[in-house]
Design a protein that fits this description.
Layout (H helix, E strand, L loop, with lengths): L65 E7 L2 E6 L8 E8 L5 E9 L10 E7 L9 E5 L5 E3 L3 E2 L4 E7 L1 H9 L2 E6 L9 E6 L3 H21 L8
Antiparallel strand pairs: 1-2, 2-3, 3-4, 4-5, 5-9, 6-7, 6-10, 8-9, 10-11
Length: 230
């Protein structure tokens, strides 16, 4: 399979031409003076509303931005910038097939303390749209027995399987060397595409991600409640 399900960022260019209001005046009042050139914070002056751009990577992450806080072998600790400064995170790994083609995205996240269980952590796999959904997803850790998970929904990006992991399964992931995921292509229902998940660095990454999420939960609880809308 050579389908890359990774989401693509849409590049939007906005061109604004100044309109003279003098022609629309119904009275004989003088036409207003031309407005001063617009400015865009961070990217310098822009005549007629045209952005002059900013250097990529020159600024800090803004609230709502996703950024990579750390890397652990093949895992990335991806976090979302919040106003509290304590940011929730996930562990992320891009999965490739035997030919090196990017096929799926796998992310693992911890659940808040006190969750009803039995899951203590969750995970999402985003598979290509050409996946045979009725076959679901198969997961095995080293030589453990396979477990089957259904696909929950699909978007334009791909189809998502949502998984829950018990404390025992997280322990297997921490001790393991490799996990294997298997999906079935829609165009070849008699075949499987197997994707290796490297578990190198998973222990350190999971512990760092869990600590970050605990701090984020505590900061959210400590933050003052937002004022009700009028």
């Amino acid at each position: 399979m050579k389908t890359n399900p990774l989401p693509l960022l849409a590049l939007i260019a906005a061109l604004a031409a100044p309109l003279s209001l003098a022609a629309q005046e119904t009275t004989e009042t003088p036409a207003p003076a031309d407005p001063a050139p617009a400015t865009v914070e961070g990217d310098g002056k822009s005549a007629d509303g045209l952005s002059m751009g900013i250097e990529v990577g020159s600024g800090k992450a803004q609230v709502g931005d996703t950024y990579i806080a750390a890397t652990f072998e093949q895992w990335e600790q991806r976090c979302i910038k919040t106003e509290t400064g304590a940011d929730p995170c996930q562990l992320y790994q891009l999965l490739k097939d035997s030919e090196g083609n990017s096929v799926a995205e796998f992310s693992v996240f911890s659940l808040p303390e006190g969750s009803p269980g039995p899951a203590v952590a969750g995970a999402n796999l985003i598979a290509p749209l050409e996946t045979l959904l009725t076959e679901g997803l198969r997961l095995s850790i080293d030589n453990s027995k396979e477990r089957a998970y259904p696909f929950t929904f699909c978007t334009r990006v791909g189809c998502v399987a949502r998984m829950g992991f018990t404390a025992e399964e997280i322990g297997l992931l921490k001790k393991g060397a490799k996990a294997t995921m298997a999906i079935v292509p829609f165009v070849a229902p008699d075949q499987q595409v197997k994707l290796d998940v490297s578990l190198k660095g998973f222990t350190a990454g999971f512990d760092a991600m869990t600590a970050a999420n605990k701090a984020a939960d505590a900061a959210e609880k400590a933050a003052p409640a937002a004022a009700p809308a009028p």
